[in-house]
Amino acid sequence: MDLDHSSWMWDGVYTHLFGGIMLTAALLGLSTSYFGVIHVPSLPFFLPDLGMFHQKKSGKKRIRVYMDGCFDLMHYGHANALRQAKALGDELVVGVVSDEEIIANKGPPVLSMEERLALVSGLKWVDEVIANAPYAITEEFMHRLFNEHKIDYIIHGDDPCLLPDGTDAYALAKKAGRYKQIKRTEGVSSTDIVGRILESSKDMKVLEGQEGSSPHGEPDEKSHAKGGHISHFLPTSRRIVQFSNGSKGPGPNARVVYIDGAFDLFSRWSC
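Given the sequence above, the corresponding structure tokens read:
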């Protein structure tokens, strides 16, 4: 038997022996002064290796992931992206792109930085938020993520994110081997929502002017169908579980509350 194995066995013997002495002392009501009289050896001498009582927890390093975005007119596609990003790590840090960067790369945002920060911060998957993040992952910002924020991976959807010059906004992260990809949620985007708002406004003007209405003053079926929109985000049981807390239900003494609303153009005041 080698030395390490033998030491491990003696450590176990000492542990049980010490535990037995303490238990006996407690049962007999003996005071510590009694032990002083019979000269029980000091604890460091009696136990060669105190480390066995203070073993360090072998907890693995928590993985921190980063995802950025404009998050303008936040919708379920944004929420699904952040949910997927959080699943790739233990802590999710979200960068909210500045108004100036959005204007330079895409066009003016509908919601201000303050409003977009409030929306992102309210989601349960988000642990930290970085305001005024750059639209492109520059070398300077990437080093800041790795060194200051201790980010392990940078995450983005599988849809291409190109800069005005046609280059990939995440090229440096991919080159560094610190990039992970999630699946984009089809069927919804902030641009699509803006288009639907404009279409809805146009339909309202048509209805107000009695154009496109039936003789009875009701909207024409064609006009109604034109303004309709079918979501591709199917609320399957699997999807519901993904967005919920899994199998965790309310406890026996939990207070369950209910609130309703249209929740159209979900905003911070809806949170």
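Confidence is low (pLDDT under 50) at residues 1-5, 30-48, 50-56, 221-227. Try to locate this feature in the token string yourself.
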